[in-house]
Amino acid sequence: MKKVFLVLIVAVVLLTACASKNQSSPSEMIMAMPAADFLNEEAEMKLSSEGVRSDGSGVEAMTVDRLVIKNANLSIAVADPISAMDAVNALAEEMGGFIVSSNLYKTTTSSGVQVPRGNITIRVPAERLDEALDLIKALVADPATGVINESISGQDVTSEYTDAQSRLRNLEAAETALVSFMEMAKDSQDVLDIFRELTYIREDIEVLKGRIKYLEESAAMSAISIELVAEESLQPIEIAGWKPKGIVRDAVQALINALQGLGTVLIWFGIFCLPFLIPLGFGTYFLIKGIRKARKKRKNAGEGKVEVKVKAKEKKK
C-alpha cells in the first residue's frame, strides 16, 4: 500500500506541475515524464482552434463563447388541432429538428360538444427558434386572439460547460499518467490498485462526457412546447342572444370599480381628514372628561351638605 500512495502522490505532483506554466518548460516536463503526456493532443488542438487573447499582462487567456439553452412555450387556438399538429411535425422536420413528444385527446365544451386538443414538443435549431415560433403562430384561426400564451426562457450554462471541460482534461491527464505508472509497476498488488483507480477515473470521464454532450445538444437544439386548443372550445356561451360570459365580465368590472372608489375614499380620509380629526378627538376626549369630573365634584359637594344638615337636626333632637 505504501507504494500505491507513493504512486498517487507522484501523479498529483506531476499534474500540478503540468497545470503551472511558470514552474518548468515543456521540454523539462517531457523529460520528467517519459511515459505520460499530461496535456493530451486533443485538448491542445482544441485550445489552438479556439484562439487566445492577451489581457495586457503578458498572460494569455482562452476566449469562450457563451453557451445558452433557449426554450419556448406556446399555447394557441386553431380551427383543427389535428391538422395543426401535422403541420408542426412537418415544420420540425423541414428545419432539421425532430418531435420529442406528442399527445392528442378530446375535451368536452360547456355545450356538451367534444373537440380535439393536443400537446406537442419539438426541437429545432436554436438559431431558427424565432422563425419557428412565427410559423407556428401563423397556424392560429384568429391572429388577434389566437395566441393564448407565449414565453421564452434562456439558461446560461457557460460556466458549467467550461468547468466540465476543464475537469475532463484533468481526468484524462490523470488517466494517462496512471496508465504509464501501471506499465512501469512490477508488483501485482500495485497493478491492481492502480487499475482500480483507473476504473473510477474512467467512470467519471464518461459521466462528464455525457454531461458535456447534453449541454451542447441542448444549446444547439431549442425545445418548443406547444398546446393546441380548438377555437370552438373558446367560444362564449350564448342563449337566445344572452351571453352569460359578458354579463359576468361586466359584473366583475363593476365590482372592481366599486372597490376602487372605496379605496379612493379611504385614502382621502386617511391623508386629508385624519391630521385634523386626531387632535380634535383628543381635545373632545379631555373636555368630556373634565366636564364629568366637575359634575362629580358638584354632586359630592351637594351630598356632603345634605349629610351635614341631617346631622345638625339629629343633634337638636
Describe the structure.
- This protein is an alpha+beta fold and about 325 residues long.
- It is built from eight helices and seven strands, in the order αααβββαββαβααβα.
- It has helices at about 1-20, 25-30, 40-50, 80-95, 130-135, 160-185, 190-220, 245-315, and strands at about 50-55, 60, 70-80, 100-110, 115-125, 145-155, 220-230.
- The protein has a five-stranded mixed sheet. A two-stranded antiparallel ribbon has the order 1-2.
- The radius of gyration is 42 Å and the shape is elongated.
- It starts with a helix and ends with a helix.
- Mean pLDDT is about 75; it is low at about 1-5 and about 15-60.
